[in-house]
Amino acid sequence: MLVVESHPLLASALARLLEDQQELALCGVARTGAEAVAQALRFRAEVIVMSFELPDMSGPAAAGLIRDQLPGAAIVFHGAEESEAALFDAIDAGAIAFLTKSATADQFLEAIKRASLGEVLIPVALFARALARQRTARADEEERTRRAVIFTTRELEVLTLLGEGLDTIAMSQRLGISAHTVEWHVRHVIEKLEVHSKLQAVIAGARLGLIEIEKP
Fold it and tell me: Can you tell me the distance from the alpha carbon of 37 to that of 93, in angstroms, rounded to the nearest whole number?
């Protein structure tokens, strides 16, 4: 079993808690994501108690790197915020248990012991929702890729300038082309995004990741 925790006092407390359990064998304590990956691979850790936040990367990122090499490793996240997004990030990283900051020592030990036996402590319904989110994300990425391919470099430049709020004249001056040519590109952008106005084009372009809109 490997403990991954950047806070020295908490790392020591977790280590002592686990060392007092005869049925649990602690192989090490890591303070960073990089250390976690190295120690997990070195000791072939079967259960990893992972902090959600680490100095060099997120807990889910470190867990993903570990599970790439040790797909059977059981990941128990702790200290995570109580949000749906955090829970889904943990599930995406292969977590089988998710302990928030409010978990007691007894709850902590129970989760780890059950994880060491191969039990999954996250409800199936939440796994299903996480899977649906992954599928939606993949579909969105495929759509962004498909849309990006059909745009010319100039059309993407025009869409970006639309996102900056420039009018036709300002865009023609920025790009060094005529206002008529700018409008021609704008029409093509609107048609390819399957929308009906410049504003809708900007919204669609941002949603698809074709452009970024700076917050005021």
Answer: 14
In a domain, 135, yes or no: no
Tell me the mean pLDDT per 10 residues along the chain, length 216: 91 87 87 95 92 90 91 84 72 80 83 83 63 68 70 92 92 94 94 88 84 69
Cα 96 to Cα 111: distance, rounded to the nearest angstrom: 9
Residues 6+ apart with CB under 8 A from 160: 211
Q: What is the CATH number of the domain that holds 27?
A: 3.40.50.2300
| Claim to verify: residue 118 and residue 157 sit in the same structural domain | no
Which domain does 157 fall in, by range? 151-207
Look-up of token digits 């039990």 = 119
Strands (E), the chain: 2-4, 28-30, 47-51, 74-80, 95-100
CA 143/CA 67 separation, integer angstroms: 28
Task: Give CA 32 to chain center in angstroms.
Answer: 18
What token pair was written down for 146?
């498909």
- Residue 147 in 3-state DSSP? helix
pTM listed for this prediction: 0.57
Q: Enumerate the β-bridge partners of residue 77.
A: 50, 98
Q: 4, 107, 117, 17: which is closest to 50 by C-alpha? A: 4
Size of the chain in residues = 216
Contacts by residues 177-185 (CB-CB < 8 Å, ≥ 24 positions apart)? 182/158, 185/154, 185/155, 185/158
Rg of the Cα atoms in the chain: 24
